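F.,

This is the one I mentioned.
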C-alpha cells in the first residue's frame, strides 16, 4: 500500500494520476496547506522542505519527497511509463517540468491570478515566460505525439496538471495546436480523470 500525502494542487495531482495509471493500491492522507499541516514535524521528517507531494511505500517503509523522484520510483516499481530504452530523453522532460515548467507557471499563477496589481514587473515577467513555455512545449509536440517521443511517459504525467490550470493562465491554450492536441488526448484517459478527482468531490479537468 502506498500512502500519498496530498493536497489538490498540480504537484499533488501528478502523483494521484500516476497511482491511478499504475493501478497500485494506495490511500490518501490530506495535508491541509492552508492550516499549515506541511510544517508538522512528522510530515517534515519525510518531506524536509515542507512540500507535498510525498509518499510512504508501506511495503518496504520507504518514504520519498519531490514529485519527480516519486514518479521515477513508482515508474520503476510498476515498470510503466519509463521505458528503459528512452530514459535519458524522459529524464530531460521530467526534469524540465520540475525545474522549469512548474516553478515558472507557479510564479505566473501568483502574480497574474492570485495577486494581480501587486507587481507590474512580476506580472509581466512571468506572463512572458509562461507564454514562452506554451510555445516551446507546442513546438516540441509538433515533432512527437508526447513530450519524450511517441509513448506516454511520466514526463507527460508531470506536465499535464500544470497545463490543466490553463483557464487561469490567460494565454489561450486553443491557439497552441499541438499542445491542445496533447492536452485533449491525455484528458480522455480514464486514470487521468480519476486521479484528477482523487478526492471525489467532482473536480473536472478544464476543457479548452
Ligand atoms: N519541487 C516540488 C514542489 C512541491 C510544491 O511546491 N508543493 C506545494 C504545493 S503545489 C506545497 O507543498 N506548498 C506548501 C508550502 O509551500 O508551504 C515538487 O515537485 O514536488
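My design for it:
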Amino acid at each position: 500500500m502506498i500512502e500519498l500525502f496530498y493536497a489538490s494542487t498540480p504537484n499533488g495531482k501528478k502523483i494521484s494520476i500516476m497511482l491511478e495509471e499504475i493501478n497500485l493500491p494506495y490511500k490518501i492522507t490530506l495535508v491541509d496547506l492552508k492550516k499549515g499541516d506541511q510544517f508538522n514535524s512528522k510530515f517534515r521528517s519525510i518531506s524536509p522542505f515542507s512540500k507535498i507531494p510525498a509518499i510512504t511505500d508501506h511495503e518496504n517503509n520507504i518514504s520519498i519527497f519531490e514529485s519527480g523522484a516519486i514518479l521515477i520510483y513508482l515508474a520503476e516499481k510498476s515498470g510503466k511509463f519509463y521505458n528503459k530504452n528512452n530514459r535519458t530523453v524522459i529524464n530531460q522532460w521530467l526534469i524540465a517540468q520540475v525545474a522549469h515548467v512548474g516553478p515558472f507557471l507557479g510564479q505566473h499563477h501568483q502574480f497574474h491570478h492570485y495577486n494581480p496589481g501587486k507587481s507590474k514587473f512580476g506580472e509581466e515577467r512571468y506572463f512572458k515566460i509562461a507564454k514562452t513555455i506554451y510555445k516551446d512545449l507546442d513546438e516540441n509536440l509538433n515533432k512527437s505525439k508526447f513530450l519524450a517521443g511517441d509513448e506516454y511517459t511520466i514526463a507527460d504525467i508531470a506536465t499535464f496538471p500544470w497545463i490543466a490550470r490553463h483557464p487561469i493562465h490567460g494565454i489561450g491554450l486553443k491557439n497552441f495546436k499541438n499542445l491542445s492536441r496533447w492536452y485533449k488526448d491525455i484528458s480522455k484517459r480514464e486514470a487521468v480523470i480519476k486521479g484528477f478527482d482523487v478526492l471525489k468531490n467532482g473536480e473536472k479537468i478544464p476543457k479548452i
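The CA atoms of residues 108 and 114 lie 9 Å apart.

Talk soon.
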